[in-house]
Specification:
Layout: H1 4-19, H2 31-38, H3 42-55, E1 58-60, E2 67-69, H4 74-88, H5 92-113, H6 116-133, H7 140-158, H8 161-176, H9 187-208, H10 212-224, H11 226-237
Antiparallel strand pairs: 1-2
Helix pairs in contact: 1-3, 2-3, 4-8, 5-7, 5-8, 5-10, 6-7, 6-9, 7-8, 7-9, 9-10, 9-11
């Protein structure tokens, strides 16, 4: 944990790395040399180095005492922080809006990257939606999960791992906020989900036509509604 006692040394170490243009694989001076360079005690330097190792910024090199700059994958590092971000958020609607903005941002990449096999994958999801809607004993959670799976698949197709992670964790948070996952379908929820899946069909039509402009308009209209829809579903499940 970063405390007041070690925050200054951490900032000083990061400044040293930045000012000396050190890259992944470069070796830091020894702890003793850093004491002289940064004008601080050995204990303080070790605390700062330990903290940065814990963050994955630094790593031990070989069997010696050398410390190197670690190779950091920014997307992976950010994705690993997502569960913490989502858990401390107080408003699921805020998370939903973030997810919507990111999904709209990566949608053009979906159009440019999607393959025939991936179009078939989306079609299969929608066919499964239709089959479930025709069942009398379908659970609301099953349909909501398929809705999320459709959007998570779009993000995966875009090639943006961060967007895919955010879409996934939004589903996790929605599940946590739904205390009655086994709720049977009600006419109100069925109507909501039918509207959702009709929008999915229209979006997929635009994707097949490789029409970015139409797809974005449809997706934006679709995403502006589900936040309120999911809030309605959550209220239904809590009754």
């Amino acid at each position: 944990m970063k405390t007041k006692e070690n925050s200054n040394i951490v900032d000083a170490l990061l400044a040293y790395i930045r000012d000396n243009n050190l890259k992944a694989g470069d070796t830091l001076p020894t702890a003793e040399d850093l004491c002289s360079i940064l004008n601080c005690s050995r204990v303080t330097v070790r605390e700062g180095l330990s903290y940065l190792k814990g963050l994955g910024v630094l790593q031990s090199a070989g069997r010696g005492r050398n410390i190197q700059i670690a190779a950091i994958d920014p997307v992976q590092s950010f994705a690993e922080l997502l569960p913490i971000f989502f858990m401390v958020s107080h408003d699921i609607a805020d998370i939903g809006r973030l997810r919507c903005e990111i999904e709209l941002g990566v949608f053009p990449a979906v159009i440019s990257r999607i393959t025939d096999a991936e179009i078939k994958e989306l079609e299969d999801i929608l066919d499964q939606n239709e089959k479930l809607l025709n069942l009398d004993d379908v659970l609301s959670e099953q349909l909501v999960n398929l809705d999320f799976f459709f959007h998570e698949t779009l993000c995966r197709i875009s090639g943006n791992r961060l967007a895919e992670s955010i879409s996934h964790y939004f589903q996790v948070i929605q599940a946590i906020n739904n205390p009655n996952k086994a709720l049977r379908m009600t006419p109100e929820i069925r109507k909501i989900m039918e509207s959702v899946f009709e929008s999915h069909r229209a979006i997929l039509f635009a994707i097949r036509a490789r029409n970015v402009e139409a797809g974005l308009l449809l997706l934006q209209e679709h995403l502006s509604g589900p936040l309120e829809m999911y809030m309605d579903i959550l209220q239904e499940t809590k009754r």
